[in-house]
Design goal:
InterPro entries: Cyt_P450 (IPR001128), Cyt_P450_B (IPR002397), Cyt_P450_CS (IPR017972), Cyt_P450_sf (IPR036396). Pfam families: p450. α12 crosses α14. β8 and β9 (326-328) form a beta hairpin. The protein is globular. It is of the alpha+beta class and 425 residues long. The strands form four sheets. It has a five-stranded mixed beta sheet with strand order 3-4-10-7-5. A three-stranded antiparallel beta sheet has the order 6-12-11. A two-stranded antiparallel ribbon has the order 1-2. The chain is built from 18 helices and twelve strands. Helix content is 49%, strand content 8%. The protein has helices spanning 2-20, 35-38, 50-58, 78-85, 96-99, 121-129, 135-138, 142-157, 165-170, 172-182, 189-200, 206-229, 235-243, 249-279, 282-290, 295-306, 338-341, 376-393, and strands spanning 43-44, 47-48, 61-64, 72-75, 91-92, 163-164, 315-317, 321-323, 326-328, 333-336, 398-399, 421-423.
Length: 425
């Protein structure tokens, strides 16, 4: 009851805030920005919209309009994106850049964690987390990941009629894995999933997104307090036991929130969309079903092709600079389209098609540079376990509705399908 009450109060507070806000740009109107500005968040089915590739071919770094009085750029080229994301000293990702620019975001809405921080804070926090995300440490989760996958498959096998693969398979697997990693109660997974989806969905405005972050952090602050009292065996307990004096509660909650949402919604979207790709590609479906050695390259190619995290965290230029012949001034905002960069023709021919045999440079699905996703290897472990297990358990699986009837997110940083109804037999 207290959870419900706090959620209602938080929702009412956000509604009130958006109504009384009189200064700056109202982020609730995000979906009314010009099409050219929103192009990196829109898709046509599984593909970035055609305008994005046309922009990339003409200007891999192009000017976009924002109503904040901020000079803004969209980066869509592969080399150009790497240049921006790799220039940590030249660009800032700190949350205060947003809070200080009168765009309706308050400093107290800072979610903390790695994504919205710069060195030396970012360096310190990442140093504390990195040991838990090495392959050696993550390998201890391998048996549990396979067990979780099999549990979901057993439940699906017992169902009658069509099954929504999103709710039955794609969401529960990363939710359980992340809860296992962090050491937080799985019974709260519904709240995690709702907050995670809402924070990346900008169709109802960015105020709602930041509100979802606040709700998530409020819960995690309670978990942190419990871990301070009785540290468990999960990631949070480890951080408390080994680095408790170096981290305050806000930092701990921010790290947990980043791990939770960064590893839940993204992996869930990959599981659902990747399965959709397989259901529409009989040869790839058969290869994953019959050959173990094709799974790894297929996962890497799917990550490039789908690039569910469509844009990187916003960067603000610290200084005047030139990137690929484009003059960027101190204070300019730069958005990197990861989905655009991963379809760049510079990577090779026919990048609009899934080809697990291609010899392309490393994709940018997890970002690049100091902010590259720390949980990348964990996500790949889940994908490599889930795809073949699903197809081998249900070799006759097929869509229960025509593909053109599927509903996709309209304006979201993390792209995904709302439902994926399938027939298993």
């Amino acid at each position: 009851m207290s959870n419900l009450r706090s959620n209602i109060v938080a929702w009412l507070g956000r509604k009130y805030f958006s109504r009384i806000q009189k200064n700056g740009f109202d982020l609730s109107k995000m979906s009314f920005l010009p099409d050219a500005t929103l192009a990196p968040l829109r898709r046509d089915g599984l593909d970035p919209i055609a305008d994005l590739s046309r922009t990339r071919a003409k200007e891999p770094i192009s000017k976009i309009w924002l109503p904040f009085g901020i000079n803004a750029w969209l980066v869509t080229g592969y080399d150009e994106t790497k240049a921006v994301l790799g220039k940590a000293k030249g660009f800032s990702s700190d949350f205060t850049n947003l809070a200080e620019r009168n765009i309706g975001v308050a400093a107290q809405q800072n979610p903390g964690g790695l994504g919205f921080s710069d060195p030396p804070t970012h360096t310190r926090l990442r140093r504390l987390l990195t040991p838990e995300f090495t392959m050696r440490r993550l390998s201890r989760l391998t048996p549990r990941i396979h067990s979780i996958v099999e549990e979901r498959l057993d439940e699906m096998a017992a169902a009658e009629g069509p099954v929504d693969l999103v709710q039955a398979f794609a969401l529960p697997i990363p939710a359980l894995v992340i809860c296992e990693l962090l050491g937080v109660p799985y019974e709260d997974r519904d709240d995690f999933q709702r907050h995670s989806t809402a924070r990346f969905d900008l169709f109802d405005g960015a105020n709602a997104s930041f509100g979802a972050m606040s709700d998530s952090l409020s819960y995690l602050h309670g978990i942190v307090r419990k871990q301070r009292e009785t540290p468990g065996d999960g990631l949070l307990g480890m951080l408390v036991k080994e680095h408790g004096d170096e981290l305050d509660d806000h930092e701990l909650a921010g790290l947990a929130d980043g791990v939770l949402t960064g590893g839940l919604e993204t992996t869930a979207s990959m599981l659902a969309l990747g399965t959709l790709v397989l259901l529409q590609a009989p040869e790839q479906f058969a290869a994953i079903r019959d050959q173990d050695d094709v799974v790894d390259p297929f996962v890497e190619e799917l990550l490039r092709y789908l690039t569910v995290v469509q844009v990187a965290f916003p960067r603000f230029a610290r200084e005047d600079m030139e990137i690929a012949g484009t003059r960027i001034s101190a204070g300019d905002l730069v958005l990197c389209s990861l989905s655009g960069a991963n379809r760049d023709e510079k990577l090779g021919p026919d990048m609009e098609r899934v080809d697990p045999h291609r010899q392309a440079p490393s994709h940018l699905a997890f970002g690049y540079g100091i902010h590259r996703c720390i949980g990348a290897e964990l996500a790949k472990m889940e994908l490599r376990a889930a795809y073949p297990a699903l197809i081998r358990r249900f070799p006759e699986m097929r869509l229960a509705v025509p593909a053109e009837k599927l509903s996709f997110r309209k304006l979201s940083i993390v792209y995904g399908v709302e439902e994926l109804p399938v027939l298993l037999r």
